[in-house]
Fold:
Amino acid sequence: MREFTLVIPGLLWPADSLAAACGNLPLPALEALLAHGAVNTLPPATLEEMLAGLYGLPADNAPYAALRVAGSGCDPGDASWMCADPVHLRFARETLVLTDNHELDITNDEAAQLVAALNDSFADIGEFAVASPANGICG
Structure:
């Protein structure tokens, strides 16, 4: 028998706002997929913690950056790696808001320029590289 794990962060909203947001929204493909599966309820966790648990990794010490390196087609080896995602801080009245890297729409050229500037400024701590325009790594 085949096993398929589907993780959809934020799928289940609080019940009081769910009806207002979705109403009678038809989702036949999702309904068909969920109808053939078994429901496993997991304790509240971040997406990273959940994925680490599904792969049998320690959630508090999973090698996320090394996994990102491996996922980009390179061998992380025994080196130490860290994630270095571009972010943006903006003012919102009296607070600062940290903008997610996926909202920045960074192009490949912009990512390459950013990595070059980081490598010039921080050559003593490691080498920065681009895993994707929205995701950087340093090792």
